[in-house]
Each structure stands twice: as structure tokens, then as C-alpha cells.
Specification:
Organism: Streptomyces violaceoruber
Number of strands: 9
Number of helices: 7
Strand content: 25-35%
Distance between the termini: 17 Å
Keywords: Transferase
Radius of gyration: 16 Å
CATH class: Alpha Beta
GO molecular function: protein N-terminal-serine acetyltransferase activity; protein-N-terminal-alanine acetyltransferase activity
CATH topology: Aminopeptidase
Protein name: GNAT family N-acetyltransferase
GO cellular component, one term: cytoplasm
Length: 207
């Protein structure tokens, strides 16, 4: 899995080794959203910077340790000009049968507003649809998170209802989004190349 590489015109995405994971954790500790806001359904950015960095480090190692073909989370470090700028996740549950993936991501505050979020999600979607033969991709974002919703809509996602979750002890509403293969193909704008997939394809439950 550490040999898997996704490349776009500006980015490289790969499963981080320990030095890159340390860099990724430092980016998270530096902040990924404005103070006072919580754009995530799991409030993982609460805490002191060193606690946030440690949580990212431990969580990503946990995704590797818990990996199975029937339930997996691919957490990729996103590199821009050789520097880690954020993380892009691609998740699958019973993917071999359902052919459905879910995405999640974040960027460090200094790297936001440059279109990198769209480009890194496009890379993950290319892996899912072109590489693994997914039928659809799903995502969700809070109604007051226009950046995340904007990325989804630029890539062709359509609204798929809403859901309510508890965040910091309060009820919040999230917009669910869905992208099928036909709309993904119609909205492809980012050139993506994938390396090293064949060696790890069975790990995704991809027959």
C-alpha cells in the first residue's frame, strides 16, 4: 500500500510513512479551520495543538492496523511542491459487493482557497471510479460549510437528503451528497495518474 501514488498537475497523494506522518500531524496542529467553528461531525480538532497532532498521528496508524478487505480507510497525505498540506481519505465498507466509497478531507489553513481541495478529491475519485470500479461515491458536509459543499458540486455530486448528528453536544444538520459514475465522467476536469495499484488491489476487496 505504501507504493500507491496518485498524481495530479499540482499534487501527489500517498500513504504517509513515519516522517511524512509526523509532518502531517504538524500541519494539523497548526490549524485546519478558524477558531470557534467546527466543520467536522467528529470534533477531532478540539484540544491543544500537540493533542491534535498526536490524535492525527495515532488515528492514521489505527487505520492501517485495522485495515481489512471488507472495511478500509485509505488516509493519504497530500503533498504540494514536496510539502505536506493536508489529508484525503477514501473509505469503503463491503466494497467488493456495494462498490460504494466515501470521502473525507482537510487542508491546513495556509493552503486553503487555492483549489487544492478540489484537486485532491478529484484524485481520490479517480482512484475509486477508474481504478477500483466504484459505482458511486458519497460525502457529507455541514450546511454552513460552503467550501466543502462547493468542492462537491464542482465535481458533480448531487444532493442526497440531510442528516442530523450531535457535535459538541448540539444537534447539527449535514447535507448528504452522492456522485454516480455517469456524473463523475461528465464532470472530470483534473488529470490524474495512479501508480502501484495492481500490487495492492486485493486489499480493497476488489475482485
Amino acid at each position: 500500500m505504501y507504493g500507491l501514488r496518485l498524481r495530479t498537475p499540482r499534487l501527489e497523494l500517498r500513504l504517509p510513512d513515519l516522517p511524512l506522518l509526523d509532518e502531517l500531524s504538524s500541519v494539523a496542529a497548526g490549524g485546519v479551520h478558524e477558531p470557534g467553528r467546527m466543520p467536522f461531525s467528529v470534533a477531532w480538532t478540539d484540544g491543544k495543538p500537540e493533542e491534535v497532532g498526536r490524535a492525527v498521528f495515532q488515528h492514521l496508524l489505527g487505520t492501517v492496523a485495522a485495515w481489512s478487505a471488507g472495511s478500509w480507510t485509505l488516509s493519504l497525505a497530500v503533498l504540494h511542491e514536496g510539502r505536506v498540506v493536508g489529508r484525503q481519505d477514501l473509505m469503503g465498507e463491503d466494497f467488493g459487493t456495494l462498490r460504494e466509497v466515501e470521502t473525507g478531507s482537510w487542508l491546513g489553513l495556509p493552503y486553503q482557497g487555492r483549489g487544492l481541495g478540489t484537486e485532491m478529491r478529484a484524485a481520490a475519485l479517480h482512484l475509486a471510479f477508474a481504478g477500483l470500479g466504484a459505482r458511486c461515491a458519497v460525502s457529507a458536509a455541514m450546511l454552513d460549510n460552503p467550501r466543502s459543499l462547493g468542492v462537491s458540486r464542482r465535481l458533480g455530486y448531487t444532493d442526497d437528503g440531510v442528516k442530523t448528528e450531535s457535535v459538541r453536544g448540539a444537534a447539527v444538520t449535514l447535507q448528504r451528497l452522492r456522485l454516480d459514475r455517469e456524473r463523475w465522467e461528465a464532470h472530470r476536469r483534473v488529470e490524474v495518474t495512479v501508480e502501484g495499484l495492481e500490487a495492492c488491489r486485493p486489499l480493497f476487496g476488489d475482485a
